[in-house]
Amino acid sequence: MVLGDREESRWTMETGHEGQHAYQAQRLRELIEEVGRRPFVATSPDGLIKVSAVATGQVVDLEISPRVYRNTNSKGLARSILDTLNSAISGASAMHVENLSRASGIKVDNFGQLFENATSLVAELMDEVNDSK
């Protein structure tokens, strides 16, 4: 559940400082999960191959047009499939890093850095909550 600014303000007033940090940690976790499920679709230059991938690098869909069988160059087909797979995976990672960086305010160059920084941020927030008890 992602709350808007009005709900966040009410949540903060009702729960205090601890609640605000818990809310921020929860919102960040939900955002990472949501963005990680959105696929990026790459299409081969000839339009015969489409690959969908998510930020983890998992390929979630592969479409190959029946017209691909008109080409007898199996090495060329293999290269086209691999290039499109790699484009989908790198595109998904870049798209998710950009979306999460924008939403979280954490500026990084890759998904691994973003996850590492987000994990550190959540740990800091939880430490602050525990220290204030």
Descriptors for this entry?
Ybab, Chain: A, 133 residues, 3 helices, mainly alpha
Q: What's this model, at a glance?
A:
The protein contains three helices and three strands.
- Please list the strands of the largest sheet in the order they lie side by side: 1-2-3
Average pLDDT, to the nearest integer? 76
Low-pLDDT regions:
none
CATH superfamily: Nucleoid-associated protein YbaB-like domain
Count of folded domains: 1
* Biggest sheet record: 3 strands, antiparallel
CA-based shape: rod-shaped
The name CATH uses for the topology is: Ybab, Chain: A
Your description of this structure?
The protein starts with a helix and ends with a helix. With 133 residues, the chain is mainly α. The radius of gyration is 20 Å and the shape is rod-shaped. Helix 1 packs antiparallel against helix 2 and helix 1 runs antiparallel to helix 3. The longest helix is centred in the first third of the chain and has 33 residues. It has a single domain, classed as Nucleoid-associated protein YbaB-like domain (Ybab, Chain: A). The chain has three helices and three strands; from the N terminus they run H-E-E-E-H-H.
Could you give the topology of this structure?
Layout: H1 5-37, E1 40-43, E2 49-53, E3 59-64, H2 74-104, H3 111-131
Antiparallel strand pairs: 1-2, 2-3
